[in-house]
Every structure is written in C-alpha cells, then in structure tokens.
Q: What sequence folds into this?
C-alpha cells in the first residue's frame, strides 16, 4: 500500500467519523465543530485531487466564514431545550439513509471504474487555471453568482432585522 | 493514487450521513449543517471527476456550489433567527402552519 | 448610392430628448422654459433637416445605422434611418412647419396650465413623425406610424377634464386601430409572401429590388391592406370620421398633426411603397376612386358646417382625397407635391382660425363671428391669402399642385373623365366653402357677443409671425412645380430618383392642360361668386338654404356617424354585453367552479397526508428517490 | 532525501523557535514599553536566586513558571472538551501562518539551493487568509465553552469583529496581488527589489499606500489589541473570551496573541516593506544608484537579508505595541462602522483604482 493510499484512508476515515459526529451529538456546538473538522479534512482531500485553490477556498469560505456564522447564530440563540429522540423515527431514517448509500455504491460499481489518474498540467487547479475558466467560459454564471450573493445579503438583512 | 471509485464511495457515505441527519434530527441548525455535509459530499465528487477527467469544469462547479452554499447558509440562518424569535424553538415540528 | 451620414439620427433624437426632458423635469421648470426647450429642439432638428436637404446628392441616399434591432436569421431588421429625396421633403415639412407651429403654440398655449405636457407631447410627435419618414424598413415605419397615432390621441384629449375631448380622442384611436390592423396584416402578408420567394426582408430598398418576384394577386391584396391602413391614418372613406372630431384638440395640434403632417402619413406611405402599388393596377383604381369620392364627399359636407375648425377639417379630408386621387392615377410626385403645398396653406388656415378662436376666447361657431377683419388685420390677410391658395387662385401653390392632379386624373393612363369630373366639382366646392367661411368670419356685421367683443385683439407676434411666413410659403411653394408650358417643374426631377419617371401622358398637347386649367379656374370662380352672393353681403338666401332638407343632410354629415353607430357600434356593444352578463358568469364561471368544487370534494379526504412536518415530506422525497434508483439499477 | 528532510525540519524549527521566542520576548517588551510610555519602571520584580538585575532573562524564566504552576480551572457547567480544545485552536493558526513568509532569498550551500521560507506555496497569501480565518474558532469555542456570559459576549464580539476585518484585509491585499501579479510571497518579496526611477525601492508601500494603511489597521484589529480590543475589553467584560482561563491554557491564548503580532508584522514587512530586501542590495552586494558598488560574499548577503527582515519585523512589532499603549478603545458601533462603511469601500475603490492603473500601464507600456 503506497503512501498516497494510506493518506487517503486516514483522511477518509477521519471525514466519515467527523461526519457522523455532526449528526449524533445532542449539543449543537459539537455538531458544528465536527462539521468544521469534516470540512477541513475534505479540504485536504481536495489537495490530494490537485485542487489547491478550492482546498484553500473550502477552508477560507466554508470553515472560516460559513461555520463561524453558524457558531455565531448558535451562540446568539443559545437554544436550551434538547430535542426528544424517538427510536422508531431514527431507525426508519437511518435505514433509508443506508439504503441510499447502498444504492449509490452499487450505482458506482455498475460500470468498471477507471484506475489511476491521467497526468495533468502542473498548474491544474491553481488560481490561474481556475480564474481562466471562471472569467472566460463561466463569466456569466460568475456574474450571476455575485448577484446571488447580493440578494442573499439583502434577504438575510431583511429577514433577521427586527420589525419596527 | 486512490482510484476514482474510492472517492465516490467516500462521498456517497458522507452524503448518506447528511441525508440521515436531515431526516432524523429535530433541530433546524443540525438540519442545515447536514445540508452542508451533503453539499460537501457532492463537491468531493465533482473534484474527483475533475481530476480524473483532467478538466477544470468540475472545479468551477464546486466554486459555484460554494457560492450557493454561502448564500443558502446566510438566508437559512436568517430564517432560523426569525423563526426562533417567534417560537423560542428550533424544532421543525413546531412549524406546521402550512398544512391542509 | 448609399452614404453613411451620422447626423441623421439627430433629427428624431433631439425632439425625443426634448420630450424626455419636459416629461421628466417639466414639473420643476418654468412653463415658458418648457416651451422654449421644445422650440429649440425642433429648431435644431430643422437645421439638421436643412443640412440633409442641402447635402443630399441628386439621386443619393443617406443612411445612418444605429444598431441591429432584430437579428433572427434569415431575417434582420436594423434600427437605421435613411434619407432620400422624398424623405428630405417630408422632413422639411415636418420640422419646418413643426417649428412654426411650436412657435405659434408659445403664444396660443401661453396661459395654459398643461404647457409642459403639451410641449412634451408635441416634441414626441415630431420624434415619431420623423422616425416614420426616416425609417428604412416597414417595421420601423410601423413604430413611427403607431407613435404618431398615440401622440394624436394624447393631444386630441389634451384637455381631458372635458369628457367630449377624451371621447374624441378614443374615437380617433379606435378608428385608427381598424386601419392599422389592415396595415399590420399587410406587413405580415408582405413579409410572408416575400419569404416564400426566399427574400426575408422588410427593408425598402431590398423590397424594391425583389418586388417583381411577388405574384400579382398577392400584390393586390397586400397593397389593398396597406391602403386600408392609409384610409385610417389619412382619413379617407370609410374611416374618415375621426378627423372632424379630432378638432377637439388645441388648434395648433389640428394644424400640425391633423392637417400638415400626420394625416399625410398615408400618402407618404403610398409613395414610399409606390413600387408595390404600381404593380397592382386594381388597387390603384380603388385608391383613385376612393380618393376622388372622398374629396367630393367631404367637400359637400364642408359646405354646410358652422364650426370654423370643422369646415377646415372636412377641407383637409377633401384635400387628402386629392392626394390619393393623384397617387391612384400613378402620379405619386403630384400627390407629394400637393402634400407639400397643402401643408403650408392648411397650416396657415388652421393657425388663422386658431388666432380667431384665441381672440374670441374659445368661440368656434362662425354664426357668432363676422366682421373680424377690422380687429384682426394680420390674421385676416393671411387667411385671405391661404383661402385664395386653397381655392386655386392663379400662380399660387394650390393652383399648381391641384391642377397637376386634375391634369393627371384626366390624362394619365390610369385616369378617366369621371375621376376628373369629381375632382373638378370638388375644386368648385372648395372655393365655395372657403369663401363662405371667410365671409362669415371676417366680413359682414359683427355678431360677437358683448363681453367677448370688448376684449377682441390681434394675437401676439409669436402667433402672427408664423402666420405670415406660412402665407408667404403658400404663395411661393407652388413655383417649384409649374406646368411644362411655364418654366417647368423642378419638383418632379427631384423626386424622380425615388418615385421613378412619371409615365408620359400620351395624346395630350399642352393645350389640353391649359384648357383644363381654364375650366378649373372657371368653376373656382363660380364657387367664389356663389359664396359672395349667399354670404358675402346681407341676404336672407342663406337662411332659406339652411332650411332645406339637403342642407340638413349635409350639416349632419349625411348621418354617417349615426349609421356607423347603428351598424357597428351598437351590435358590438350588445354582443359584448351578452358575453359579459350571460355567457361569462353562466357558462365559463360555471365550468370553472364546477371543476374546482369537484376537486375540492375529492381532496377533502386526501389532504390529511399533508402533515405540515417538513421532515415527513423529506422522508417521502427520499423514499421516492430510492424507488427511482432501484428501478434504474434493476433495469 | 534525508538532507532535504533535515533542511525542512531545520527551517520549521528555526521559524517556530524564532516566532515563539519573539512572542515571549514581546510579553516583556510590552510591559517595559507600557512602563516607558506611562512613565513608570515596570516589570522588575522577578528575581532568580535573589538576583533581580537581568530583567529580561528573569522575566522570561519566571513567567512560564508562574503560568504553568497555576491551577487549571474548568468551569463546572462548561464544556470540558471544547474548553481544552479552544487554546490550541487559538495558537495553531498563529504558528502555521508564518510557514509561507519568506525570511530571506535563496541560500546556496555547495550545489544545494535552499529557499529561505518554510513552504513555498503558489497560493501563499490565500493560505495565510485561510489559516487566519480559522483563528476565530479559538475565541468562539473558548468563549462558548466557558459558560460565562462575559466570555460569551466577548466571543460574539470577537467573531463579528474578526470576520468583518478579514474582509477589508483580504480586499486590501488584492490590490497588492494585482500590482505584483502573483500570490507567492517569495515572488512578491523579490519583485520589491526593483527600483523606481533608479533610486526608489519598489516596495509595496510606495505602490499601494492605501492598501498598507488598510492592511495595517485590519491586522491590528485581527490581533484584537487596542484600539480594537473590544472582545477583551477589561472595563466591560472583565477579560472577554478568556475570562475563565488560567494557567497553561491562558498562556496559550497569550502567546497566540503575540504570535499573531509577529505574523502580522512579518506580513506587513513582506507585502509592503520589501520583505528581506535591503535597498540597493543585489545578489552579489550593494549597487548604489549614485554609482559605485560594494561587492559582498554570498553568505554576508544572506545574513544581511535575514537581518533586514528581522529588524523590519521587530520594528512593526514595536509599532503595534506603541499603538496599543497610545490609543483609546473604540466603541463597538464605531468599530463596525469603521470596518464596513470606511475600510471596505476604500478597499474596493483601491482595487478598482489599481485595476485602472494596471490597464493604463499596459496601454501606455510605461514602467512601472
């Protein structure tokens, strides 16, 4: 087993463990922290897939901004009451999720998977190549995305503002 | 190098965990967190395919998914705040006005 | 020979900017300033038009492409302007006469509250009208065509507090819609027929090149539809009824829109598309007949009207009939020539009547006027000149242009004696009703009521100067197109590049034309004499005539409005009422409500499934996804 | 292979050693500096074996002993796990950020070229921002885990403040990135060795003065020090987010803050003041604009470079301490207004102006 594979398995098992830690704890802050950790490990996985720019963006945007926003809101609301857990509902939901997982996996193995990665240019996944795509072929979606963010800002302010 | 399917299976696992979280947890914030989890699983798939196809499109899509996720989180949290202000609760079962 | 000429766009755009400024900021400007702004815009436009006229080479075309408007292969329409000889003439009329009337309006509307609105509309009209004549394709022309209709509607109903004005505006708009519908159908049919020949275009020059490809019967249908549009806009039988009512608007508007420019759009369009009309002899015959009939018919009505502006309105209809008669016999150049001269003298007449109305504080009934020449000398003299011109006094513009039409009606290959006869009789009637009006208004005893009489005054210089200029123009404009036995015409060669060479009038010596001229002069003189005898001095004959049945018929305009009301309007409203009060609530609502209540009954039991818990929905969604995946995998 | 690993380990060790020691040193400098400014004597009580004369050495020894021997207190209702995790989360980003800051040009030893930088990432600046954005966790988590309303308020304040100023900071750096056309810090440092008009060093400060002011302000705000110390704000929140911390964990917060100061100073130096560049010092020695040259051996050049970098960093550390003891604290609404309504627009304008300048320069093809 090569070093790459070992690295992959370590990262994969860490991400799965922390993903599970997102949905199980009763404490919302623990969930959020677990998600932040998952995001961080997924970012490292991005690095192994030659996507350094997106790995950094993942840390910067997801872990650094979105998750902080979550924590911020959790602290602001400080929800006290803990939810009840009905066994039947949990079992049903978990079974459905497992079924989904099995179906997805069998879908992936429906056809043989390509083994090994094709060689890519050194700059693949770097800021230049990403920017090249974004500002040429995807210029319009890029602009629309900026409008979307603006709309989200205004929407959030309008929603969260106290009346009167 | 790990084969493509490994990454796909990993993202399927994370996605399924996210789905389970959305369905079983009775807490808006955790539901939102689980949605982020699902989005991330999909991002991982995109990036893996981008790597194996040697094309930047997958990464570009992930960029846009991040944008959308940011917008979604912001608006979702704003909705949660305003709901919490009215109901003092984060339980989705308390919000059942839209029925019948 | 096409030449790019970037100034062209400024002719419509400057008035548009003026209108926009007045609409947007008018409320904050002093009303006087709004007027000056509008005048300045049109003056600039006029200067540009002069430049275009001056620089335009003999048989050249100026083009100015702004941008591609519609790009849908294989069809492409540009927002582009073109100016050839015909357009140049029209531009001069629109901006030149328009400028004079703008200036006149400064005096006429000086104390009106809605001045900024008025000038904004007026500028907007100049914009649309110049767009209409500058358009290089039918679509753009149609934009202008509808735009001027809109401005006409806005200005007829300008004093909207008075309900009759808005009714008149509506009438103009609706009647025009009928014609426009025909016009639009014509455009579509032309587009389709051309497309079937593989030429997807509405551009004039390209159409002209491809016109010979069309089948004869489709050309006839297309041109008839176009002419239907022209009858609406240019007030021909059967759609002329809106024009007399349009006199509800301010008088300068009547002069500009409903006499000099907009109503001539139909004539312009006919001339612009002459290459199509020339291919359809049947349509030409229809046009000539309708033109002659309209000319005569409207003139007879004008004889018995007592409203000073209505006389002029019917006169306008009658003169437009002349123009269509000319177009109908293939003498497009003569039609445009009459359009040109008519713009001068009819504008002059309208503005003169406006001056009278202004002096009398809004009175329009000629029976309450009389003897005004002492109080309004300038108005009187210009009015007299214009009346002489329209009646065809020798060596004036009306004389030349009308005789050209009469001569063509008689002698051109498409003409006939009957057409000439109608036109000839109309010439007599024209002289009669014009001088009847002149005598009733300016001569005889003063019948003005006392309080108004004390305030009688000549109008301010802003109004009289345009009057004088227009009167001078009325006299001299005609010298551009004298018959061959004088110094000939500079007009026809000028338009030749656009309208083609006039077909030579065969088997006619100059003597024939001279003879016809004499006949026309004769009947005009007869009309004048009759008017003098009946109205020019104290006499009781007029009252006795007024009591006759035929006079009553004429005064009521042959009851055409009432007939239209009975035949079209009433059945239509009855039908609409039935639909609204019986069919819609009973049948349609019954059906819709029935469907709704059936579904409602069915859904009462099923709606419990909607628990309101978003996670139940999510679970259902997940289950569905699982099933679909399972199906896909199992396949 | 082994040697390469060894060199990397040596660089990591060197940087960590320098940063941590400088952080500790700054603790003493701060006390002495504040005493200087407030006209008093300051930290002079620590004595080793009754000998109090060597203030610096004594304090450096005494401080850790004091901290490490104190009780490590966790509030009873607090979250044990997160309470312990928080200081690590606070210290970690401050330490790893320095990895991409170059402290010298290439050192040539025999055949081997050693880049004087721990990791030469081609997205160096973004890496710094990514790590810096993680430093919020320490505050937020620590504040929440303490189960104390003062610390929670401090944490909320801190999170909002850091996110707000991160935006202005990022936008201000975009101007620099555009000016130099790279995200690599080593390249940025190298580009600053050029000269304008033959005599003025092409430092970022001269190219992007507005960006420097914005970046410096934002950096001070990021370190949460006066005048931006609202999250701590002794007079309002006792000690803010670390009010429930003591002993070694507090020390980690403390050192983390000073490490952030050092990192900020390093970044400012690298982005705006030439990094390891010394004016007119080329690879083979000094070349003065007024003619004349002073050729130096390679090792001397490298030493000069590292020395220049160190002195610049120390200067900016000192400047931040000076600021802290000179300025009064903002009010929270003023802080937010400054961040969102002043710095953000100015930074945006700076980006646009820089873009216009670059386009103009390309059009006119004039250097620079």
A:
């Amino acid at each position: 087993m090569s070093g790459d594979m070992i690295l992959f398995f370590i990262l994969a098992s860490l991400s799965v463990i922390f993903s599970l830690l997102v949905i199980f704890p009763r404490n919302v802050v623990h969930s959020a922290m677990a998600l932040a950790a998952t995001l961080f490990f997924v970012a490292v996985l991005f690095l192994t897939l030659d996507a350094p720019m997106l790995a950094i963006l993942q840390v910067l945007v997801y872990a650094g901004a979105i998750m902080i926003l979550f924590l911020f809101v959790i602290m602001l609301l400080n929800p006290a009451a803990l939810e009840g857990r009905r066994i039947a509902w949990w079992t049903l939901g978990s079974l459905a999720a497992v079924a989904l997982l099995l179906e997805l996996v069998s879908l992936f193995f429906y056809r043989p998977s390509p083994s090994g990665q094709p060689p890519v240019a050194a700059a693949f996944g770097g800021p230049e190549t990403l920017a090249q795509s974004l500002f040429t072929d995807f210029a319009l979606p890029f602009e629309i995305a900026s409008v979307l963010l603006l709309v989200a800002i205004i929407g959030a302010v309008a929603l969260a503002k106290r009346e009167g | 190098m790990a084969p493509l399917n490994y990454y796909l299976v990993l993202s399927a696992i994370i996605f399924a965990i996210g789905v389970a979280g959305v369905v079983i947890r009775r807490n808006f914030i955790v539901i939102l967190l689980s949605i982020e989890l699902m989005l991330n699983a999909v991002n991982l798939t995109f990036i893996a395919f981008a790597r194996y196809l040697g094309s930047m499109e997958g990464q570009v899509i992930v960029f846009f998914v991040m944008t959308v996720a940011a917008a979604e989180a912001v608006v979702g949290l704003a909705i949660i705040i305003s709901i919490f202000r009215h109901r003092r609760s984060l339980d989705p079962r308390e919000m059942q006005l839209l029925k019948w | 020979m096409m030449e790019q000429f970037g100034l062209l766009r400024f002719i419509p755009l400057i008035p548009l900017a003026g209108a926009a400024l007045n609409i947007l900021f008018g409320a904050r400007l002093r009303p006087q300033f709004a007027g000056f702004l509008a005048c300045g815009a049109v003056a600039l436009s006029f200067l540009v038009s002069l430049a275009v006229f001056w620089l335009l080479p003999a048989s050249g075309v100026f083009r100015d492409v702004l941008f591609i408007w519609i790009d849908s292969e294989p069809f492409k329409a540009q927002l582009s302007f073109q100016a050839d000889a015909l357009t140049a003439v029209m531009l001069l009329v629109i901006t030149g006469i328009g400028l004079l009337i703008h200036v006149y309006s400064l005096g006429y509307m000086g104390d009106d509250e809605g001045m900024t609105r008025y000038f904004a509309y007026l500028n907007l009209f100049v914009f649309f009208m110049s767009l209409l004549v500058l358009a290089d394709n039918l679509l753009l022309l149609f934009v202008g065509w509808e735009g001027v209709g809109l401005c006409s509607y806005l200005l007829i109903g300008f004093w909207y507090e008075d309900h009759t004005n808005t009714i008149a505006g509506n009438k103009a708009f609706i009647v025009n819609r009928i014609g426009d519908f025909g016009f639009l159908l014509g455009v579509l049919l032309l587009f389709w027929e051309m497309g079937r020949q593989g030429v997807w275009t509405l551009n004039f020059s390209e159409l002209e090149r491809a016109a010979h490809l069309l089948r004869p019967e489709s050309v006839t249908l297309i041109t008839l539809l176009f002419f239907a549009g022209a009858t609406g806009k240019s007030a021909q039988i059967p759609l002329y009824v809106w024009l007399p009512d349009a006199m509800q608007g301010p008088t300068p508007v009547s002069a500009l829109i409903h006499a000099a420019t907009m109503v001539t759009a139909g004539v312009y369009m006919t001339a612009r598309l002459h290459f199509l009309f020339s291919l359809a002899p049947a349509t030409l015959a229809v046009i000539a007949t309708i033109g002659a009939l309209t000319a005569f018919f409207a003139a007879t009505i004008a004889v018995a009207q007592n409203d000073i502006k209505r006389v002029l309105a019917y006169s306008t209809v009658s003169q437009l009939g002349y123009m269509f008669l000319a177009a109908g016999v293939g003498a497009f150049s003569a039609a445009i020539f009459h359009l040109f001269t008519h713009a001068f003298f009819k504008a002059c007449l309208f503005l003169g009547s406006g001056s009278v109305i202004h002096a009398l504080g809004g009175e329009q009934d000629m029976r309450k006027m009389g003897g005004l020449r002492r109080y309004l000398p300038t108005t009187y003299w210009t009015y007299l000149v214009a009346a002489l011109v329209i009646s065809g006094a020798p060596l004036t513009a009306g004389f030349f242009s009308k005789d050209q039409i009469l001569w063509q009606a008689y002698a051109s290959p498409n003409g006939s004696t009957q057409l000439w006869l109608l036109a000839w009789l109309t010439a007599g009637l024209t002289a009669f009703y014009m001088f009847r009006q002149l005598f009733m208004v300016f001569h005889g005893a003063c019948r003005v009521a006392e309080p108004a009489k004390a305030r009688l005054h000549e109008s301010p210089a802003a109004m009289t100067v345009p009057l004088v200029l227009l009167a001078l123009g009325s006299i001299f404009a005609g010298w551009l197109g004298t018959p061959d036995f004088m110094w000939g015409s500079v007009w026809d060669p000028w338009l030749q590049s656009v309208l083609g060479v006039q077909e030579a009038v065969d088997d006619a010596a100059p003597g024939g034309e001279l003879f016809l001229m004499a006949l026309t002069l004769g009947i005009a003189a007869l009309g004048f004499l009759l008017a003098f005898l009946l109205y020019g001095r104290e006499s009781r004959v007029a009252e006795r005539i007024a009591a006759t049945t035929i006079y009553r018929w004429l005064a009521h305009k042959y009851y055409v409005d009432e007939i239209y009301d009975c035949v079209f309007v009433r059945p239509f409203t009855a039908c609409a009422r039935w639909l609204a009060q019986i069919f819609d609530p009973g049948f349609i609502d019954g059906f819709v409500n029935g469907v709704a209540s059936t579904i409602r009954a069915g859904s009462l039991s099923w709606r419990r499934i909607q628990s309101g818990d978003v996670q139940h929905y999510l679970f259902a969604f997940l289950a569905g996804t699982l099933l679909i995946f399972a199906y896909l995998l199992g396949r | 292979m082994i040697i390469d690993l060894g060199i990397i380990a040596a660089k990591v060790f060197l940087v960590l050693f320098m940063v941590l020691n400088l952080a500790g040193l700054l603790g003493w400098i701060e006390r002495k500096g504040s005493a200087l400014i407030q006209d008093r004597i300051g930290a002079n009580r620590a004595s080793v074996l009754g000998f109090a004369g060597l203030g610096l050495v004594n304090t450096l020894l005494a401080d850790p002993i004091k901290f490490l021997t104190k009780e490590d207190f966790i509030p009873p209702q607090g979250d044990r796990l997160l309470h312990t995790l928080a200081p690590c989360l606070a210290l970690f980003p401050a330490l790893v950020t320095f990895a991409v800051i170059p402290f010298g040009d290439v050192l040539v030893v025999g055949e081997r070229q050693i880049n004087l930088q721990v990791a030469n990432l081609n997205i160096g600046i973004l890496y710094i921002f990514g790590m810096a954005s993680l430093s919020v966790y320490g505050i937020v988590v620590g504040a929440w885990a303490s189960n104390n309303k003062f610390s929670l308020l401090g944490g909320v304040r801190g999170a909002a403040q850091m996110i707000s100023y991160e935006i202005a900071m990022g936008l201000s750096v975009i101007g620099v990135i555009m000016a130099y056309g790279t995200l690599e810090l080593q390249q940025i440092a190298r580009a600053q060795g050029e000269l304008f008009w033959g005599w003025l060093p092409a430092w970022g400060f001269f190219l992007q003065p507005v960006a420097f002011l914005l970046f410096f302000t934002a950096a001070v705000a990021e370190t949460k020090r006066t005048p931006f110390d609202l999250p701590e704000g002794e007079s309002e929140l006792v000690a803010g987010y670390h009010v429930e911390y003591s002993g070694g964990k507090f020390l980690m917060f403390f050192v983390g803050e000073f490490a952030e100061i050092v990192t900020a100073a390093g970044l400012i130096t690298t982005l705006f003041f030439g990094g390891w560049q010394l004016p007119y010092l080329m690879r083979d020695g000094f070349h003065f604009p007024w003619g004349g040259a002073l050729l130096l051996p390679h090792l001397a050049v490298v030493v000069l470079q590292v020395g220049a970098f160190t002195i610049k960093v120390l200067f900016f550390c000192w400047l931040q301490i000076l600021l802290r003891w000179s300025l009064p604290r903002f009010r929270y609404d003023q802080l937010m207004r400054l961040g969102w309504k002043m710095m953000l627009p100015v930074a945006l304008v700076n980006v646009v102006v820089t873009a216009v300048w670059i386009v103009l320069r390309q059009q006119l093809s004039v250097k620079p």
Notes: The longest helix of chain C spans residues 560-606. DSSP finds 26 helices and three strands in chain C. Chain C has a mean pLDDT of 87. Residues 294-555 of chain C form one domain.
